[in-house]
Amino acid sequence: MNVRLILLRHGQSLYNLENRFTGWQDVELTETGCHEAEGAAKQLKNGKIDIAFTSALKRAQHTLQIILDSCGLQNIPVIKNAALNERSYGELEGLDKAETAIKYGAEQVHIWRRSFDVAPPGGESLKDTYERVVPYFKKAILPELLKGKNVLVVAHGNSLRSLIMFIESLAPEQIVVRELATCVPVTYEFDDEKLKDLEVR
Q1: Can you give the three-state secondary structure of 74-105, one letter per residue?
Q2: Are the beta carbons of 50 and 78 closer than 8 angstroms?
Q3: Positions marked catalytic
Q4: Under a CB-based contact definition with an 8 Å cutoff, are residues 144 and 3 in contact?
Q5: What is the pLDDT of residues 175-191, one digit of tens each?
Q6: Domains in the chain, number
Q7: Where residue 73 sits, what CATH number does that domain have?
Q8: Residue 1, pLDDT score
Q9: Range of the domain at 126
Q10: Global pTM?
Q11: How many CB atoms lie within 10 A of CB 35?
Q12: Most buried pick, 88, 132, 146, 200, via CB within 10 A?
């Protein structure tokens, strides 16, 4: 049995455009973000998708809805859960990234953004995000793959990097430099053996 897991970062959001820390702020897609979602739909149109997962944030939900509508998949199950939310940036959320670098120092902001286990004030590190996302993957998403279903997950840069770290067995120093473009599908093919390996990890 071969199944597919497709990971997709949402389209450009308003805060992406304005270069602000977004985190759990529930901002919408820009017009560009909607077009990016339509572009992703064209890439996914010919592949079978049986079930979709997304976060509790509307930029991911809206991206998924555009894809489902464009691909004629309005009837597949959609599971929304905050476990797939973006990493929380705590007190930095909503702040302009350049202004934040002036306020706290560029080196400190770089550490908050790019270290694995250092959290910004009141927020989550990537390690914290990993410890939220991966148990949810094992509890809710992996069982669907084990049933032979092809799964689409539309979420966020850091929640998806957490999943990629788990799936690819990456070290912290490898995942912190991994970039995920908006609305570019990352696809994994699993056979029974690979699924069992994920199950026992």
Answers
A1: CCCCEEECHHHCCCCCHHHCCCEHHHHHHHHC
A2: no
A3: 10, 86
A4: no
A5: 999 999 999 999 999 99
A6: 1
A7: 3.40.50.1240
A8: 75
A9: 3-200
A10: 0.96
A11: 15
A12: 88
